[in-house]
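sry for the spam today, last one i promise. struct tokens for design, 203 residues
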């Protein structure tokens, strides 16, 4: 499992709902937490490790010493958004890019945890921001999509250099071709579909 960077196509590929929360999923969750801590993140979504599944991991402080505060959101849905907040935001798939993004201040979220237990939460401020950012990842939406004109101008150079780096890595065959990446994503989706139909409410 590896963190992928913009403009890797997995980041724009809408993720599929998880149909069974089994040991495969729990192993993925554990590896995602490791990658998130290694990179000093507060959240990491499955598309960021090239997995087309609706799940993300999050730690409100990003602190691996406080494992009891780890949170896992499987098939999450934000059912309510209220108010607005503006603040600096970054993304592990866009190293060293921080820009102001406007988000809802309060949200209500529903999801399943790594034991398949349904839960819902009312969250505010930074936690609400993280959940909105990560849920967007599951639908192929990225924080750059919400930049205002100033943030867009300020990030043009950084995005262009990430695009150049990506092409260079593909030429060096460090990264497969986009066609091969899409083939791998579809194979993973088929594997998930074989596990059966979603049980319980499909969110
Ligand atoms: Co992100």
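last one done:
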């Amino acid at each position: 499992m590896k963190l992928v960077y913009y403009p890797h196509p997995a980041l724009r590929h809408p993720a599929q709902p998880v149909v069974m929360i089994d040991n495969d999923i729990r192993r993925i969750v554990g590896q995602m937490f490791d990658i998130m801590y290694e990179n000093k993140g507060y959240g990491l979504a499955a598309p960021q490790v090239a997995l087309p599944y609706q799940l993300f991991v999050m730690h409100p402080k990003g602190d691996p010493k406080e494992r009891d505060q780890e949170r896992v959101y499987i098939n999450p849905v934000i059912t309510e958004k209220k108010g607005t907040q503006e603040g600096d935001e970054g993304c592990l798939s866009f190293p060293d890019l921080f820009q102001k993004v406007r988000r809802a201040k309060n949200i209500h979220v529903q999801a399943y945890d790594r034991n398949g237990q349904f839960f819902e939460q009312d969250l505010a401020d930074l936690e609400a921001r993280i959940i909105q950012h990560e849920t967007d990842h599951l639908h192929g939406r990225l924080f750059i999509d919400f930049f205002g004109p100033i943030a867009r101008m300020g990030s043009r150079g950084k995005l262009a250099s990430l695009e150049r780096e990506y092409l260079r890595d593909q030429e060096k065959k460090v990264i497969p071709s986009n066609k091969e990446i899409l083939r791998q994503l579809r194979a993973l989706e088929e594997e998930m579909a074989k596990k059966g139909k979603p049980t319980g409410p499909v969110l």
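DSSP finds four helices and seven strands in the chain. ok im logging off now
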